[in-house]
C-alpha cells in the first residue's frame, strides 16, 4: 500500500471518528461523507490532507453524492465555528 493511500485511510478514519455519519447509512453515503467532510475542513482553512472526491462515483452514485454534499457542508460549518470560537481565521 502506498503512502498516499495510507494517508487517505488514516484521514478517513480520523474523520469518521469525529463526524456524525448516520449509522444506518449505506457504504456509498459513508464514503462520500468522509471525503466531503475532509474537503469541507480544508476549504475552511484547516490543515491536513484532503481525501479526494471520487468524481466517477459522485456523478453516478446518489448515496455517495448525498453523503459528500452533506459531509462537506457539515464539516465546513463546524470548522468555521471552531475557528471563530478559538480565534482562528478559517475560510479562504
Characterise the protein shown here.
The protein has helices spanning 3-18, 27-43, 55-60, 62-86. With 92 residues, it is an all-alpha fold. It has one domain (3-86). Helix 1 (3-18) packs across helix 2 (27-43) and helix 2 (27-43) packs parallel to helix 4. The radius of gyration is 13 Å and the shape is globular.
Give the tally of β-strands. 0
C-alpha end-to-end distance: 33 Å
Q: N-to-C SSE series?
A: HHHH
Global morphology: globular
Provide the domain count: 1
Largest sheet: none
Tell me the Rg in angstroms: 13 Å
By secondary-structure content and strand pairing, the structural class works out as: mainly alpha
Key attributes of the depicted protein:
70% helix; 92 residues; mainly alpha; single chain; 4 helices; globular
Amino acid at each position: 500500500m502506498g503512502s498516499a493511500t495510507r494517508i487517505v485511510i488514516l484521514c478517513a478514519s480520523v474523520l469518521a471518528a469525529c463526524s456524525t455519519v448516520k449509522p444506518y447509512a449505506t457504504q456509498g453515503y459513508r464514503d462520500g461523507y468522509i471525503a466531503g467532510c475532509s474537503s469541507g475542513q480544508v476549504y475552511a482553512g484547516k490543515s491536513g490532507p484532503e481525501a479526494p472526491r471520487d468524481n466517477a462515483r459522485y456523478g453516478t452514485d446518489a448515496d455517495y453524492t448525498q453523503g459528500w454534499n452533506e459531509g462537506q457542508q457539515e464539516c465546513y460549518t463546524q470548522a468555521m465555528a471552531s475557528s471563530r470560537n478559538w480565534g482562528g481565521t478559517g475560510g479562504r
